[in-house]
């Protein structure tokens, strides 16, 4: 059964089991999808309200982007599980097999590429949530904050799944390049997610 076709209970039970998939990367993609869905909800609660007529076009555009991004993250739940299969197979190649190094290199690259894409998608979601927080209904502002926190956590979690693969790469220059891309995403989007949370907390009367 495909990951996104499982019930919530089935997904969590399999995540909690010794099954190799879903794992941290797939869970990160799912949490990112939840985060962007919360932003989309803010948009849906804002659209059509006379009070927010001035930002109606912006909100509708945000909703369209959020729907597409959520679908992309849902697909990455599946992609992360699929990427693990060749890696598991590569570990089974005998150490004295001449093809092992090339097989491992390809499998590790594939396994690192998916969480890197999850990080990028979560960054895009954080950018959308910035706008939802600024323009969306005040009645749903807490949901924009929650969405930003979820996407921040998902981005960081996906980053760990990049690192767990790059650390094993024989090509250290390529590994450093992937690690640098992951660090750039953290540097750009984590402060922005924190700012959304801080803005929401302040608007709700927090510190």
UniProtKB/TrEMBL annotation:
SUPFAM superfamilies: Methenyltetrahydrofolate cyclohydrolase-like (SSF101262). Pfam families: FTCD_C. Keywords: Coiled coil. InterPro entries: Cyclodeamin/CycHdrlase, Formintransfe-cycloase-like_sf. Residues 52-79 form a coiled coil. It comes from the Bacteria. GO terms for molecular function: catalytic activity. Residues 7-183 form the Cyclodeaminase/cyclohydrolase domain. This is Cyclodeaminase/cyclohydrolase family protein. It comes from Candidatus Faecalibacterium faecigallinarum.
């Amino acid at each position: 059964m495909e990951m996104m076709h499982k019930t919530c209970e089935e997904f969590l039970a399999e995540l909690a089991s010794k099954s190799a998939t879903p794992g941290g990367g797939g869970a990160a993609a799912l949490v990112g999808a939840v985060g962007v869905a919360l932003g989309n909800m803010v948009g849906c609660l804002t659209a059509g309200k006379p009070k927010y007529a001035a930002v109606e076009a912006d909100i509708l555009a945000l909703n369209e982007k959020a729907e597409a991004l959520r679908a992309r993250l849902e697909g990455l739940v599946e992609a992360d599980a699929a990427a693990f299969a060749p890696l598991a197979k590569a570990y089974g190649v005998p150490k004295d097999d001449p093809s092992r190094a090339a097989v491992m290199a390809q499998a590790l690259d594939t396994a690192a590429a998916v969480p890197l894409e999850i990080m990028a998608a979560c960054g895009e979601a954080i950018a959308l949530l910035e706008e939802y927080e600024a323009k969306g209904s005040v009645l749903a502002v807490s949901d924009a904050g929650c969405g930003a926190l979820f996407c921040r956590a998902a981005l960081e979690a996906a980053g760990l799944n990049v690192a767990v693969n790059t650390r094993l790469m024989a090509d250290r220059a390529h590994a450093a390049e992937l690690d640098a891309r992951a660090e750039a995403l953290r540097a750009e989007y984590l402060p922005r997610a924190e700012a959304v949370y801080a803005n929401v907390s302040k608007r709700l009367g927090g510190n």
